[in-house]
Amino acid sequence: MKKRLTLVVTLITLISLLVAACGDNKTNTGTGTNKPAEGGKEEKVKLTVWHNFAGDDLRAKAVRGLIDEYKKANPNVELDAQAIPVDGYRQRLSTVAAANEMPDVFFVYAGSQSQEFFDAGLLQPITPLAEKNPDWKNNFMDGAFDRFTFEPNQIYSAPIGLSATSFLYYNKDLFEQNGVTVPTTWAEMMTAVKVFNEKGITPIALGNKAPWVAQSTIIGSLADRVTGTDWFMKAVKGEASFEDKVFVDALGKFKELADNKAFQEGANSIDNTQAEQYFVQGKAAMMVSGAWTLTNLAASATAEQVAPIEVTTLPTIEGGAGEAGTISGGPGAGFALSKKTSGAAKDAALDLIYAISGPDGQKAIAESNSMVMYKMDLANSKVSPLYLKAFNVAMNAKITPVYDAYLSAEAGETINNGLQELMMGGKPEDVAKKVQEAQARSTK
Questions:
Q1: What are the start and end residues of each CATH 3.40.190.10 domain in the chain?
Q2: Which CATH number is correct for 164-329+392-442, 3.40.250.10, 3.40.190.10, 3.40.630.30, 3.10.170.10?
Q3: CATH 3.40.190.10 given to domain 45-161+332-375
Q4: Do 400 and 322 touch, CB atoms closer than 8 A?
Q5: At what angle do helices 245-259 and 220-227 cross, to 10 degrees?
Q6: What is the mean pLDDT of residues 33-60?
Q7: Is the pLDDT of residue 298 over 90?
Q8: Residue 443: pLDDT band by 50, 70, 90 thresholds?
Q9: What pLDDT sits at residue 18?
Q10: What 8-state DSSP symbol labels residue 323?
Q11: Model confidence at 379, in pLDDT bands (50, 70, 90)?
């Protein structure tokens, strides 16, 4: 009897262990996936996503299309996707942030906005995506995650755009017809300015009525060639001074352009769009501008007007501390994950972020003629020829800071106005002093 009881107890124990093992096989196994084990049933998940891609432009349609594709591929996810117009998006997001009621996934700008949300404890990292997909993470351009990294070894978004601000667009026909070399050095640039002026052609189109234009498109890249990036970042922190000779020299290069009539007369009284039209009509040989010019020209210029336009970077400056072949800019916005989202909803949210910012998503956005920070071959894609030229330049360029992305608001406004002063005869030393004083007030 005793032996029979022992046998029964042993059998019950074995059966219990077997049932427990089978139960374990049904456990969710992956970070970034809410799919069940073979033969299981998908867990129903509710997910909210906010973004500002509400327009009819190609980029907005591309992002909405990626979200729709995710929704179709994941019927177990009840997705509440809200496309909020750009003008009201920041305010809507700030309102829910103040109440700690963030959507599960939301579009967030790199820099101050994402930093503020992190500081408020509203974000959680998307690092699991990078760990699960190292090839994806490693295929981004250098610096892509800098503005989304708020603590060591953790990233909080992946950019789906590149804010590139300083492409050198040039009209190859005007250069060839007038026997001018496309400038790769500062000496060649000043020679080009001289020759085009002699021929009655404006060397560089500039519309600086809104004074951020010269700062964003020219001075960030131009000054970096003189000072180097490290010096600028030290000056921002108060570890170097904008009154240092190296920065005064950088401002002097911009003044040299103005004094030698590189820009059309009245450049401070026309806007960027007018300058683009002036350039594309063949009245100027060059224009220093951002990726937005690609979109504007695609909408407003004829194929014949765009055909002779080539894209490169500003020339190197002999003896400067900065690198050649760089463009100013930085990561654009990306999709972030709410700190409150957990469990299966978190897995689904990570899947959604990857569907938008992963390789397929990056390609879809790039094919909408929008700059991204993800390396790929677009030679056989349906992008405009001018976009492809600029994209290839960007993929081979190192990105340097745009000044107003790092300066205080007061110092940013000061450098903007200071460049207008230089164009009207001001002194580099005076402008440098004002910038230093403004930045110093913000770092006390």
A1: 45-161+332-375, 164-329+392-442
A2: 3.40.190.10
A3: yes
A4: yes
A5: 130
A6: 76
A7: no
A8: confident
A9: 36
A10: P
A11: confident
